[in-house]
Amino acid sequence: MSEPNPYADGEYKWGPTQPPGAPGYGYPPPADGYGYPQQPTLPGAYPAPMGHTGAPLVSIGDITVLQDSIITPAGPMPLKGAVWNATDMSRTEEKIPTHAIVLAVVFFVLCFLGLLFLLMKEKTTTGFIQVTVTSGGRHHSTMIPATGPESFHMVMGQINYARSLSI
To answer: Which pTM value belongs to this model?
Structure first.
């Protein structure tokens, strides 16, 4: 393996032949340096929507629904014929808090009414709600954190509104 390549003619030649200073593969180089082509911005440094006008009708996570299109980080999609799905991946747990157990033990010694502290319950909701939209051959999915047991119903209300616009 330490022997030189017998088929090489002595000069390093790898990759396509390009004149010096010619742009490489992919996007043409932007005028201000390295990176993707810059979007035009509106006053206030917010990126301007590319070819889409109108006020947002509903926003579900990072999905924004306009009058005629759906804007996602993956790119715009047509609103007509969009398929919306939601999956509830949250859970609500109910447990007895630690301070209720301590109070029950302390007041059990004084009177049996201390056992009523064990009836105290604490509900905590954890997890996410996954929202997916498919339209025009594109697919985008987003995760919305569940803050309570009513979070899924709130997101489903927004999705049902978006579905009514997609008809």
So the answer is: 0.60
CA angle 67, 68, 72 (to 5 degrees): 95
* pLDDT of amino acid 115: 83
The answer to whether residues 52 and 71 touch, using CB atoms and an 8 Å cutoff, is yes
Cα dihedral 73, 79, 82, 87, rounded to 10, equals 50
Mode of pairing for the β-strands spanning 83-95 and 122-135: antiparallel
The answer for 116, left when phi > 0, alpha when psi is -120 to 50, beta otherwise, is alpha
pLDDT band, very low/low/confident/very high, at 109 (cuts 50, 70, 90): confident
- Asked whether the predicted pLDDT for residue 125 surpasses 80, the reply is yes
The helix/strand/coil state of 158 is helix
Q: What angle do CA 77, 80, 82 make, to 5 degrees?
A: 65
Q: For residue 129, count other CB atoms closer than 10 A to its CB.
A: 22
Average pLDDT over residues 127-152: 92
- Interacting residues of 130 by C-beta distance below 8 A, sequence separation 6+: 86, 87, 89, 141, 142, 143, 144
The tokens describing 38, both together, are: 């810059």
Give the SS3 label for residue 114.
Answer: helix
